[in-house]
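Morning run. Coffee first, then this:
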Amino acid sequence: MKKIIISMALLLSVGTIMGQVDKAALKQAKKEAKAQMAEAHKINEAITAKINEKTATEEEILTECKKGQGLIRKALKSGAIDENKLGEAYKLSADLALQPHNVMLGHAAKKEPFDTAFFYSNLKIMTDALQGEIKNTKVTKGEMGNEAYIKGKTYNLAQCGDYYIYAGQFNAECGKYDKAIEAYETAMNYTKKYPEVADQAKLRIPSEQIAYYAFHTAHEGKMYDKMDALFDQAIQFEQGAVGTKQVKVASFLERGDSVAWANYIHEMTVKEPKANEDYIQMLIAYYIKKDKEAGAAGNQMMTYVDEIIAKDPSILIAQYGKAYKYFDSEKYDEAFAAYLKCTELKSDYYDAWYQCGLCKYRQALAMNETVNKIKNRAEAQKALEKTKELFGEAIPYFEKARECAPDEPMKWAFELRQCYSVTGQAEKAAEMDKLM
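And here it is:
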């Protein structure tokens, strides 16, 4: 029992000592904060007077305001400023940030060099100080009240959103991509960060355009995760949507991830085929290569184009891809039907008309090779007639190809000569000879 009483007494004694230490430390912190505020106030008054008298140099403004800011920041960070003095402290901080801000804006307007890192850090101090002053200053009305003054400060804070866009641009130009994106994101979320101006802040450009700047800045800095996070907003900026999409797609290859590249294009194109026909063509080429590597098991391209056609059968490149796959597999009847579908979608499509003819032509050549192997004369003659028939069937399609490219006989004259020769049209065959 005695031990317990002694322990409690000791605990009470330690608590009393700690309380005395805390009180002493707080008293000292308050004393230091008060002195820092006073010194910062003197610096502000002195430089403001010189500015009003137009005797202050820009270097002096920047140097003295930085010095004053250092003092007031220490005071605010200490947490030792009396609550009823917080509004005054934040006002002092805002005043000391405003003058350097104006100096640097002047240089920016004249396209002269200035400290962009300081511009950004000073801007953050200024807006946080304005917010702190507004939140910690009691509004009083009437002739002697401060209501109009606080409204003015709120207006000033509302106008500062645009400066974060400038800060983003300045930092991006200097290769400080992380700071640039941070500034852009502050601008995009300005009314969330500073709800006091939610009904007043009107940025000079829409948030989707700011996201567009931030997205491309992230790309320059190879900050791919940040790019991905910004993409959905950036793509809403219609004027830059095409370029934004191109950069997003290309970024997967920059990362060395062709699988992710293919998956992304696949998802995008199946969702909106009409808006992404160029990408469909790219992915078809990719799948063709993959199918060749996979050998007989390769069927990614056909599966893909079937998905696209199911979504929108008017996508010409998908229909052509399907036809190509059939043709490459020597399924000429299926290829012919698919190429013919392409001509329905685009009546002057040279490649599709030519390939229609080539399907018949290849079938004729394949059958012709079997004629000499047929021992039964009647069957052989029948095969020969069928061969001539197929060559004849090819002619109108090659002629349609000719109509599409009349000045390029090297594209169709050889096949037409063969077809005309086999079908006994010597004059037309000779005409083709002259064109070759």
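The CA atoms of residues 287 and 301 lie 5 Å apart. Good start to the day.
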